[in-house]
Amino acid sequence: MFSVGVISWRNLCIPRLSQKRFAHDIVITQRTGKPIVKYGAGGRSSVSGHIATVFGCTGFLGRYIVSKLARQGTQVIVPYRDEDSKRHLKVCGDLGQVVPLEFDLRNEKNIEEAVRHSDIVYNLIGRDYETRNFSLEKVHVEGAARIARISRELGVDRFVHVSALNVDKNSPSKFYRSKALGEEAVKKEFPDATIVRPSTIFGQEDRFLTRYAATKYGYIVNGGRTKVRPVHVFDVALALERMQKDESTIGETYELYGPREYHFEQVMDLIDELIDRRRIRFNIPKPIALAFTKAFNLPFLLTVSPEEIEKLYVNDKITPGAKTFEDLGIRPLSLEMNSLGIVRRFRSARAYDQPLGYGRPIEKSKVGKKREIHVEY
Ligand SMILES: NC(=O)c1ccc[n+]([C@@H]2O[C@H](COP(=O)([O-])OP(=O)(O)OC[C@H]3O[C@@H](n4cnc5c(N)ncnc54)[C@H](OP(=O)(O)O)[C@@H]3O)[C@@H](O)[C@H]2O)c1
């Protein structure tokens, strides 16, 4: 009798409850009027109704946004170039929800296939250096414009383009010049595109804290005086995720930067403090740094490129009145409080588990009058 009761309860009540639809399960998109139909209770195994394409998903920021989208039931198309580069993304979502597609940025058919069914396209494609096949213009301007144009032609509802803070057509840095032209080209092809300009991003496996913590000697340029406002990768990914549902972000430009400004040398001091090492620090004059990086800028050496040296001379500058985290309801994480987990692996075995500040005292920063960084733990 009991089992009959259980079966009838399951058969009759649970399926009906879970299949019931409410008015708020259907959203009509503002731009194209396409219906987005939600199904399920929410979360990884439900269906949010959205299909997103994330170009540049195989990079540092890409994996965080793919994970954020897939865990709430969005189907994510992940265009990739190298077979192994997309492997880790498959497990971000439920079975069949993360769909890898091989693509070439120059091949329009590939791009069409990747965006055809999507209602939102994120373009995270970017490169800090030029390669034999791709100049910065080909990646940041031509490639971005091509994806934006095809997305518009195929009726994609939203386009989110990731650029960079400090973009300027007259910047001494080729990277920032090409990113500025890229924004313009994207806006021309897709006028309602949302532009996102993050400052230097830090997080697990970044190319900022990790790179400087890994070096035996600390090298700085510009006397460590360049001003930076590092932003956590969690915050940038959260902002990108919020843009999917928040239609007030259509056509807007967001500058995403951390809560505090630092001189570069202060960041180096912080890294030294966190990894409990006092490294000899060299200030390399610009002509020598450029000559060295030009001579050794070989892909297999994984050195710093000349474009990256130029970037290190540009102070982070906020555009007055630009929208930021506050407009998305996000309070950004600070560098001091969130860096230890990222660089701890560069500590010696002796110091690995020690609390902060147990090691030798760190000398005062040469840039500021007094050390301003205070690490709490
Ligand atoms: N990380 C930062 O500190 C920072 C700061 C400001 C702005 N941004 C911008 O934010 C975006 C994401 O940054 P990220 O740190 O995640 O970059 P990343 O780790 O270097 O990843 C870049 C992505 O772009 C793809 N890509 C590069 N060149 C390509 C090409 N020619 N054809 C097709 N795909 C190409 C890469 O694919 P493969 O894996 O196949 O190479 C990779 O998926 C970029 O646009 C970057 O410029 C980053």
UniProtKB/TrEMBL annotation:
**Pfam families per the record?**
NAD_binding_10
InterPro entries assigned: ComplexI_NDUFA9_subunit, NAD(P)-bd_dom, NAD(P)-bd_dom_sf
The chain positions of domain NAD(P)-binding read 56-219
Gene3D superfamilies in the record: NAD(P)-binding Rossmann-like Domain
Q: Which GO terms describe its molecular function?
A: protein-containing complex binding
Record-given protein name:
NAD(P)-binding domain-containing protein
What GO CC terms are in its UniProt record? Answer: mitochondrion
Q: Which organism is it from?
A: Gigaspora rosea
